[in-house]
Amino acid sequence: MPEPSDAAADAAEPSLEEQIAAYQREFQDLDPQVEQVVSALQRLNRRMNVAYGRQTATLGLSNAEWEVLKALVVSGAPYQLGPGELAKRLGLTPAAMTHRIDRMANEGLVTRERDEANRVRVIVELTDEGREKWLEAMRLASVFEEDLLQDLNGAERHLLGQVLTRLLRRVEDAQPDADGRLSDLD
Amino acid sequence: MPEPSDAAADAAEPSLEEQIAAYQREFQDLDPQVEQVVSALQRLNRRMNVAYGRQTATLGLSNAEWEVLKALVVSGAPYQLGPGELAKRLGLTPAAMTHRIDRMANEGLVTRERDEANRVRVIVELTDEGREKWLEAMRLASVFEEDLLQDLNGAERHLLGQVLTRLLRRVEDAQPDADGRLSDLD
DNA sequence: GCTTCGAACTTTAGAGTTGAAGTCTTCAGG
DNA sequence: CCTGAAGACTTCAACTCTAAAGTTCGAAGC
Questions:
Q1: Residue A3 counted as domain residue
Q2: Which residues in chain A have Cβ-Cβ distances shorter than 8 Å to B88?
Q3: pLDDT (tens digit, 0 to 9) for every residue of chain A, 186 residues total?
Q4: CA B7 to chain centre
Q5: For a 10 Å CB count at each end of chain B, is N or C smaller?
Q6: Is residue B8 part of a domain?
């Protein structure tokens, strides 16, 4: 069996601190405090998505499907949206939405039918089964989220929520949502 | 031209507050404070990724390529890593890494060569051009990040960084990185 | 030294996405 | 009416990722 090898191949996954130190070494103008916030935010979000993915998988749901269910639930009763609107909210192209709805309709999570009042439009509607799946996933997610924030007291939670919301408002104002397509994940 | 239509099709993109209100309506047990933190975090990260994507695009770089550049820079001089190691750090399968390296080598951002000391291994190395691209992207990113945090004073930045890092540590400890594959984006 | 096992990467087939072109429907004008 | 223009969705080809083989090389056993 080959040794663990020292041939410039492992070097162990860098911790957040090591990552920031490396950036500073290569780019002197970097503000370490800013980078700490940004990098922690990105890593945290990434790990959370992994966790959500595992949870929804236990329900036989992909993360992609969960996104659709969430959008429909947020839209409120009667839980109907058009493919185009869904695509915009999820940051996908309409083409991708078409196929995703195909799959979900086959699984019975949503129905797809033409709007008889305006036959150009299509209406995607959550089924009872889809709504139930969303609820199950939500139960799992809320347990995970509560556990994640466990070490933060009420004041800290409030403060964190406020600060993040302020930052969010800043980005949303700055970006007039010129289409709102997201490009990749981190 | 069809009217803006009232046929259950638009309903305007929901704000963060509206989204949380909708969740509460459908799932009584939800803690609105927890949800505020989680939802703001996710939306913020998403918008940031859109912004990063636009910036790197102006440099002729995809977000995917930028991820590779970052990993190589963080690894430090001589900026070498194997495909397998890169794949693990980016949360991709080795197969995907093979193709991504193909593309980037064609563009001259990295080189790929067999390790002559151990011919099973392959060494991916950052080129000078790749390093320069990273630097340009980093300059853009740091401006954006500084602007994003502009409204936060030093104490707030510090606190935010600390709290996020605490949360990150909690997730990383809880998930023994059972492979570290990430499943989807939000 | 030949064989076997394991490690690291690549190849292949299939799912899912994008961007561009195509279809169908509605509305406005002549 | 009949035609033209625009909107909403779908179809098609090219690309990227995953999962599962396949290939190549190195190390250990007999």
A1: no
A2: 13
A3: 444 434 344 567 889 999 999 999 999 999 999 999 999 999 999 999 989 999 999 999 999 999 999 999 999 989 999 999 999 999 999 999 999 999 999 999 999 999 988 888 999 999 999 999 999 999 999 999 999 999 999 999 999 999 999 999 999 887 655 544 444 444
A4: 37
A5: N
A6: no
Q: Is the peptide bond before A78 cis (omega within 30 degrees of 0)?
A: yes
CATH number at residue B145: 1.10.10.10
CA–CA gap between residue B32 and residue B17 (Å, rounded): 10
Domain assignment present for residue B12? The answer is: no
- Judged by a CB distance cut-off of 8 A, whether residue B1 touches chain A is no
In a domain, B183, yes or no: no
Q: List A residues 125-144 in contact with B (Cβ-Cβ < 8 A).
A: 134-135, 138-139, 142
Residues spanned by the domain of A141: 33-174
What are the strands of the beta sheet with A110-114, ordered from one edge?
A: A80-81, A122-126, A110-114
Q: How far is CA B152 from CA A22, B98, B146, in A?
A: 25, 42, 10
Distance CA B122, CA B115 (A): 5
Q: At what angle do helices B32-58 and B128-148 cross, to 10 degrees?
A: 140
Chain B nearest C-alpha distance from A119 (Å): 11
A99 is written with which tokens?
């196929």
